[in-house]
Amino acid sequence: MNTKISAYAHPEVLVDADWLLEHLNDPNVRVVESNEDLLLYDMGHIPGAVHIDWRRDLNDQTVRDYVGPEGFAALCERNGIGPETTVVFYGDKSNWWACYAFWVFQLFGHSNAKVLDGGRDKWEEEGRPLTREVVAYPAVTYPVPAERNDAAHRAYYQQALEHMQAGKKMVDVRSPKEFSGETTHMPEYPQEGVLRGGHIPGAKSCPWARAANTDKTFKTREELEAIYAGELGLGVEDDIVAYCRIGERSSHTWFVLKYLLGYKQVRNYDGSWTEWGNMVRSPIEKSF
Fold it and tell me: What is the full DSSP assignment across 52-96?
């Protein structure tokens, strides 16, 4: 384990490319690619990796929610993932969707999971092997989880509202103009139907990308502590809720706070601004 990773609060959840290369043929390891750009996997992926599409595979196709326990078990079974399998996630956008998929797996208690530091971008930049071959793994049995444990990792609208009303810590990880209310979408992205711009009253702005280096890896623990503890004043014992627009960028920040820095109570409000900004009479602050 490299020295940067070993310094994190939970180094077991992060691996570098050298570690992954050594474990590509390990039958107890399943590599999962999850991207925003759904075409990237077909253009080339890490040998042996399976593709989990966050839209198709992780989300319910009718209700705005995630798959239930039966759906999660079926997803794992068809990708050759058993309850003891070590799952290593990676993807584009500095691992936005890899962290999102990691987060969903935690809702079902699959804690034997890791993220590839630097994701797809760094792997490609270093000339690591890619293939278009799609491996079909034999189906395995994955016991249906007794429940989806949202309470430990996820906040719903009402919980986020009560959190705000109690004056507890909230982190808005969107871009500065989204936070201020000047725009209602990410730079260079389409408007996604939200009716009001701004932020949740009392939330602090800290764009998710501040946690990443230019090569898409996570910053060091010391650098991250300077941002989240030093600048934002977050304490390890604080009850914290992070949000963005649909929960993808905030899952990245959730991963940083909970696993790299060891914050004990961190939840991702995945309804985020597309829900809050459209909710009738939802309190909003603007700052421009």
Answer: --IIIIIB-SSSSSB--HHHHHHHHHHTT--TT-EEEEE-SGGGH
Residue among 179, 186, 184, 220 nearest 200 (CA): 179
Q: What is the pTM of this model?
A: 0.97
Contact 210, 286 (CB under 8 A): no
Domains (ranges, CATH) in the chain? Answer: 3-125 (3.40.250.10), 157-276 (3.40.250.10)
Q: 183 burial class (0-12, 13-18, 19+ CB within 10 angstroms)? A: middle
Catalytic residue among 76, 99, 206, 244: 244
Check if the beta carbon of residue 109 is closer than 8 Å to that of residue 145: yes
Q: Is 244 known to be catalytic?
A: yes
Put the strands of the sheet holding 113-116 in their side by side order.
14-15, 113-116, 86-90, 29-33, 50-51
Per residue in 49-68, pLDDT (tens digit) is 999 999 999 999 999 999 99
